[in-house]
Amino acid sequence: MARAHKELIRNARRYVRKREVTRDRGKPDPSGLGTAREMIDRYIALATAFRKIGDRRLRDAALEYVRELDALKAGRLLPENEKRGFWLSDGEECAGIAIVYDWLYEFLSREERTLLVDRCRKRLLATGLRDCRKGGQWWFGKRFSNWNAVCAGGLGMLCLAMHDDCPEARRILPHVEESLAEFMVPLRQTDGGWPEGLGYWNYGMTYAFGYMLSWERSTGRTHPLMKLAATKKTLGFPFDFFPNGKSAGFGDNDSFFPCAFHYAAADRFKLKWVKGAIDRLIAKAGTGMGGLMGGPSICCVLHPGTAGPGARTENRVAKVRKGLGWGVIADSMPEPTLYLCIRGGSTRYEHTHLDLLSFRVLVGREWLIENGRIGPYLHPTAFSQHRFKINELNATHKNTLFINGVGPLPGSATDREQTVRGQGCYGVRIDASSAMVVRNCFCARLALMVDDSALVIIDRVRTRCDSRVEARMHSYHDVTFGKAGAVIRGETESLRVTYASLEPAGLFRAATLPVTPTHPSATVMRWSPIGVHTETVLVTLLTPGRSRAAAAVARDGRSFLVTVTVKGATRELRVRPDLTLR
C-alpha cells in the first residue's frame, strides 16, 4: 500500500503537467469509452491526491478534467451518445463526478458548485431522468446484466452526492432503487454467483456496491438490499475461481483483480477472510488495487494500510454454486497443487459461451488444459444473432462433449449439477442431457479428484440410435501424443493424459482456428470411439508430472468399473449408469 500511495501522488502530479490521454493509444475508440475512462481515473486521482497533500493545483486540474470530459461528450461524441442514450460511459462518469463532488465539496466555492451541478443537470441527469425508468433504456431492471448496475448505480451515486442541490436527483433515486433491486435480488437464485463471469462481476458490483455503500453513509441506515444473504455471499464468489491468483471462470471476460469496492463491502459485512484474501493478493502484486471507478486511488482512502488476518484455507474442495452451476475441485484452496473448474448452468445469459460441461485444469500456477482463448470483441458480430458462429464462442473450441459433431446448443442449460463424495474421491457431476442436439438422450460428466493427486473425468452418453461421441480437450502448451494418451509440457509443470473407453477408441490431433489469424492456435486432443454406438463411456485420467499412469473401464453388471493407476497405486471406482458413485 505504501507503493500505491506514492504512485497516486506521482501520477496526480503527472496528470497536471501532461494532459494528453494515452489509454488505448492507436486503437479505435469510436464510442470514446476508453478516453472517458482515463479522464475519470485522472480526476478521481487528482481529487484524492488533493485531499492527501492539499496542493490546490490538483483540485483545479480535477475540475478541469471534469469540464473537458463533459465538453467532449457534448461535442465530438454527441452523435454517439445520442444514439446510445444513457449508457456505460455515462454511469462511470456519474460515479466519478460523485466522488469528486463529495471529496472537494468543502473546498469548492458556491459558484463552482453551481457550475458543476448545472453541467450535470443539462446532460447526465436529464438523460438519466429520461432513461432510468420503465420504458426507458433496455438495461433498466435487467437481471444478470452488468449494464444495469453500472448505469443505474453510477447515476444513483451522482444523485446521492447532489441530492440537496438538485431536484432531478431526488426524482431519479426511486428509479435507481427499482433497477438495482433487479440486479441484486436474483443473486439468491445463483448462490451469490454471477453468470456473466468474473470480469463482469467485478464491473457490475463496483457500481452496485458503490451506490449501496454511499446510500448507507448518506442516510445512516441499512440499505434493504444489504440485508439479503446473497449480497454478503457474493463477495466470496470470485475466490472459488481465482486459484493461485489465476482467473478460472467462463465466458467473455475471465479477468479478476482486487477492487476497492470489494474491500469496502467486505469491511462493511465484517468478512475478515475476504479482506485477508484481498490483502494477500495485494501483497503478492506489490501494488494497490485495480478496477474502474478510480480503484487504485480509492484504495488509498479505504484501506487502513496494514494487512488483515490471512485468507481462510480449505482442503479437499468440491463445490457447486447452486443455480449458477459452476463447479470447483481442488486439493486445497486458495493455493492448490491441482485444480479443476467445470461449467454447468445456462447459456442464456449475456457474455456466456456454448461451453457447458467444459472444464479447465490448473497444475501449480499453469493452465495446462484450457478452453480456446478469446480475443478482443469483434463488433458487431459478437453481440448479434451470429454470435455463436464465432469459433471461440461456440462449442468448437471448448473442452466438452460432442454427439454427432455437435456440442451444447445455444439457449441450452444443464439439467443438474451436484457435488459427489465417496470411495475416497470428491468431485462434481453434471447432467447435460437436455442441452444436447439428440433428443431423449442421456449425457453426463463426472469429474473426480482421486487421492488428492489426480483427476478422473468419466463421460457417459446414451442415445436411441448409433451416434458418434467425442471428448475434446485443448492446450496451448507442447503436447506429445501417444496411442491412448498424451503428455502436456508447460513452462514449469507437466500433465500426463491417459484415456480409456468402453469400446475401441482413438486419439486424434487437431488445431483450433482462431478468428484472428495472428492469435495462437491450441492443440486439440480428440478422444472418440472408432465406431458409432448407442452407448459410449469415456475416461480421461489427468496426473501431474510425467510418471506412467493407466486407466481402464469395464461393465460391472448394470454399472461400470473404472480402474486407474497412479504412481504405482491402483484404485477401483464403481459408477452407476447415471454417473453417481455406487
Task: Give a concise summary.
The protein is α+β, with helices and mostly antiparallel strands and 582 residues long.
Topology:
Layout: H1 2-17, H2 33-53, H3 56-74, H4 78-84, H5 88-104, H6 110-131, H7 146-161, H8 167-184, H9 198-219, H10 229-233, H11 237-240, H12 260-268, H13 272-285, H14 295-302, E1 314-320, E2 326-333, E3 338-343, E4 359-363, E5 366-369, E6 401-403, E7 416-422, E8 425-431, E9 442-450, E10 454-467, E11 469-475, E12 478-481, E13 485-489, E14 494-501, E15 505-511, E16 523-529, E17 533-544, E18 549-556, E19 559-566, E20 569-575
Helix pairs in contact: 1-2, 2-3, 2-5, 2-14, 5-7, 6-8, 7-8, 7-9, 9-12, 12-13, 12-14
Radius of gyration: 26 Å
CATH topology of the domain at 314-575: Beta-galactosidase, Chain A, domain 5
Q: How can the largest sheet be summarized?
A: 8 strands, antiparallel
The CATH architecture term of the domain at 314-575 is: Distorted Sandwich
CATH class of the domain at 314-575: Mainly Beta
Q: What assembly state would you assign to the polypeptide chains in this entry?
A: single chain
Number of helices: 14
What do these coordinates show?
The protein has 582 residues and is of the alpha+beta class. The chain has a domain of 262 residues: Beta-galactosidase, Chain A, domain 5, CATH 2.70.98. It is built from 14 helices and 20 strands. An eight-stranded antiparallel β-sheet has the order 7-8-9-10-17-14-13-12, with no helix packed on it. It has a five-stranded antiparallel β-sheet with strand order 1-2-3-4-5, with no helix packed on it. A four-stranded antiparallel β-sheet has the order 6-11-16-15, with no helix packed on it. β7 and β8 form a beta hairpin. The longest helix has 22 residues. The protein starts with a helix and ends in a 7-residue tail after the last strand. The mean pLDDT is 94.
